[in-house]
Amino acid sequence: MGTVTKRVEVGEIEIAYDDFGEGPPGSRPLVLVHGLTGHRRDWESQWDFLGSRGRNLAPDLRGHGDSTNTGDPATYTFAQLVQDLRGFLDAVGVEQCDLLGHSVGGMVALRFALDFSDRVASWVAMNTSPQSPEGYERWIFERGGELGREHGMVELQRKIEAVTRQAETPVSDSHLGQWPVDYWEHHRMRYATLDPDAYQYLALEMVDQESLVPRLGEIRCPTLVMVGEDDTAFLDGADLLETGIPGARRVTVPRAGHQPHQENSEAWQRAIVSHLERVRNGSLGEG
Mapped to the 3 state alphabet, what secondary structure does the chain carry? Predict the structure, then answer.
């Protein structure tokens, strides 16, 4: 699958994005929004699958990947990421899209769908929540941000990897062993380009966010709620999205945790095909 990495100016920053697959003239793309510490290449294992079904756009959020690292805590807010997404769609000439948001990217996508409902034809809420998920504490991200600024994000990643490997069951028995690529190699790439301020302050946005459960009834576009069966931090969030969004459909992916597109690719692909066929009138080529 031919994939082209491009850059576009959005306000005071540049956003890097992958553009892959083609659809008929006038058809709308699927826009893939990664989560905190993520990267546009999080979707690389799905390029061929998604690209054969239409055009796809996968941007790096500010502070991530090859997009601008501002080094300014004030610029790392959910509200700013919503404006970045609007500016990105404007810059690439997309009036309306099917939108997939993963984890923190799903929190951004939810806010975008509420603020700019005319731009979202459908939404996939993947391993995300309308409120702060369980088990995340401020001090972890505050200390991580400090370490990243003092010693670099490569060193922070090294420490996270070391601690995780010590606590992990053997890779062959964990979800990491199901990845189609080397998990830790990908993890190192993500952190090597990550702004420590983005890491800290977007994480604090996640932890401190005001619940959007009372506003879920405002979402009117077709919605797929997807979550890995073992992603315990986000199962409650999936329940809230499923019950709060009118007409939302739910898929719980078996044998998967927080990265179902990597951990159970076949089940993830079936869910995506079913959703896109439903919202594109039975034809993956139609807008």
Answer: CCEEEEEEEECCEEEEEEEECCCCCCCCCEEEECCCCCCHHHHHHHHHHHHCCCCEEEECCCCCCCCCCCCCHHHCCHHHHHHHHHHHHHHCCCCCEEEEEECHHHHHHHHHHHHCHHHEEEEEEECCCCCCCCCCCHHHHHHHHHHHHHHCHHHHHHHHHHHHHHHCCCHHHCHHHHCCCCHHHHHHHHHHCCCHHHHHHHHHHHHHCCCCHHHHHHCCCCEEEEEECCCHHHHHHHHHHHHHCCCCEEEEECCCCCCHHHHCHHHHHHHHHHHHHHHCCCCCCCC
Q: What is the pTM of this model?
A: 0.94
Note whether 238 and 250 are within 8 A (CB): yes
pLDDT tens-place string over residues 242-277? 999 999 999 999 999 999 999 999 999 999 999 999
Sign of CA dihedral 220, 221, 224, 227: negative
With vertex at residue 227, the alpha carbon angle to CA 40 and CA 180, rounded to the nearest 5 degrees, is: 50
CA distances from 82 to 114, 177, 178, 186 (A): 10, 34, 32, 26
- Six-digit token pair at 25? 């003239």
- Cα gap 145→199, rounded to integer Å: 6
Q: How far apart are CA 69 and CA 63, in angstroms?
A: 4
What whole-number distance in Å separates Cα of residue 259 and Cα of residue 231?
9
